[in-house]
Predict the structure of Putative tartrate transporter.
Amino acid sequence: MSSVDAATRVQNRILRKVAVRLMPFLCLLYFVNYLDRVNIGFAGPNGMNEELGLTATVFGFASGIFFLGYLALEVPSNLALHRFGARKWLARIMITWGVVATAMAFVPNATTLVVLRFLLGVAEAGFFPGIILYLTYWFPAAQRARAVALFMAAVPVSSAIGATVSSALIASGHGLFGLSGWRFMFLVEGIPAILLAAVTWFYLTDRPSEAKWLTAEERTWLSERLAAESRETEATHGWPLRKALTHPRILALAFVYFGIAYGLYALGFFLPTIIKGFEQQYGTDLSTMETGLVTAIPYVIGAVAMVLWSAHGDRTRERVWHVALPLLLGGVCIPIALYLGNPYLAMVAVSACAVGVCSALPTFWALPSNFLSGAAAAGGIALINSLGNISGFAAPYITGALKDATGSQHTGLWVVGAVMVAAALTVIALRAAPRADRS
């Protein structure tokens, strides 16, 4: 056996141990996180909008204001994680968001709903970019897109399983504890975050050098490999924190992520409503549970595509087109979904959009780590995520406002497609990494 083959076997063994230890738990955390973020999309058409008297515009505003609170604290939260460690900081985030998510079950009116959604964003700030940063502490650059994909598979899985679970809770929980079905759903889905915070405190390990579940040789190998990569990135690009928070390239990457997330949240918040609309458009008659199961289909397909596409990107070491092509696919497919002649063709188009969004997500996060490290990575990744997630406010609000203004979903979905195509063109123009300089 050659020395290269031996080194590859050592690397694969260590990274497999890391993946088995960390990825299932991180996926579980993100599953709960994403479900608490978007379950308002299931509550809306299943009693909440009627009970609270919400128009499509107000529903979109309540869905999206989460991201204004999220934006306000994203960067300082990620810098705190970099300083204090992922274990403690993620546990703190989870307790606060779990409390607010549970309180959603008791909202008396639209104003309180808007306030709690804003506070939920404040509470969750730093969770997602914190995990992305945390993965850079454990996985070398060549394997990072696949690791991010395994983690982010929780998004389509949460949307798929979450659609069914949320629908089941709404249908079966109506009247329990004197609560409407959608209130019971908020109550049940908010509690796991609080419970998992305690598990996070004891289960996660901040750095490879502290991992008692690796052997001493494995800890040394992984720590030295990641330190060497960090030194190389620093020597090649040398971006300080201030540059990572102000450089036009970071702002452009934030726009690319805005486009990806715009498609993701437009689907997440309005797909249940769109499928409900099939009843009028195509004459279908779906129960709450059936709507949840149909909603799950695009995300199941998207989850499979996400893992396969990111693995291909890692093998080829190509990043730009692995982001741009899925964005172009999603951008073209989503606006035509409601113009097709039957619900089956419409679901094919929606599924293609889900494939595009899900496939672009993990490889995108390999782009900033090509040239950021240390505190610059913590700040830059958080800034990209926070600015990009403005789309979480814009997508549901604009889509809802356009539906109120025009009486249909068509215009809003054309906007989704245009934003995704613009993001694809932007990432093509940027290339994978900046030229090596310290300007």
Summary: The chain has a mean pLDDT of 83. The chain has one domain: 10-430. The domain at 10-430 is CATH 1.20.1250.20 (Growth Hormone; Chain: A;).
